[in-house]
Amino acid sequence: MLPTNSSKGRTSSYARQNPVFPQYIRRIVKWQQMDIEYTFWQMLNLCTSPKVVYQHTKYHKQTKNQWARDDPAFVVICSLLLIVATLAYCAAYDHSAGHAVFVIISVLLFHFLVAGAVLATCCWFLTNNYLREEAPSSHVVEQRVEWLYAFDVHCNSFFPVFIMLYVVHYFLSPILVTHGFIPLLLSNLLFMIAASYYHYLNFLGYDVLPFLERTTLFLYPIGIVIVLSPIFILSGFNPSRYFMNIYFSRAL
Description:
Helix content: over 70%
Structural class: mainly alpha
Number of strands: 0
Shape: globular
């Protein structure tokens, strides 16, 4: 009898999992197949009780036999919210409809989707090549981090950042973009908290996977953020003014 853990067997098993992604893409245009209520429940708990969300990820693995979501509702709703928030910034700080369209497309693609794909690919490569536990036996089924799950982790981590740096920041922006020590301090604190929470959620997303080890590696960037923040404050760097200047330099 042929061994079940042969390289050919693993390749064919992985190939059978690939149809999940085309199915995921097809469901983007089918609202009736999306679980909107569950998505908003996830979004709320990512800001208040993120461990509960990843506890449900374990249940999803048990019932669907995959760690990644098979429902694109989270990505779709997060994209729509990001478009609405960017529209609000354009209404307040932009004076050209054509430039506003450019800003919306740029923010959606590069702040969320492209950056998310790059970060997810880096984490997917890192976890599968360096953080997986050695199988105790040749008869144990090899487990790997799915790329779509790595993208899910990014989306989960991004949503609280969206709340802090796109929503809360919008209402505070008239203060944050002004000159002075208080705006400088508040801006750096807001960005520090947002970046730290992003990496904390990233850690939770990979720590829940039982076949990974040394996942505390994902907490290390928080230390870098905490060290850099007082340096930015002392040097007079205001991240709010910097990023707002990229898109709305004429309004500042």
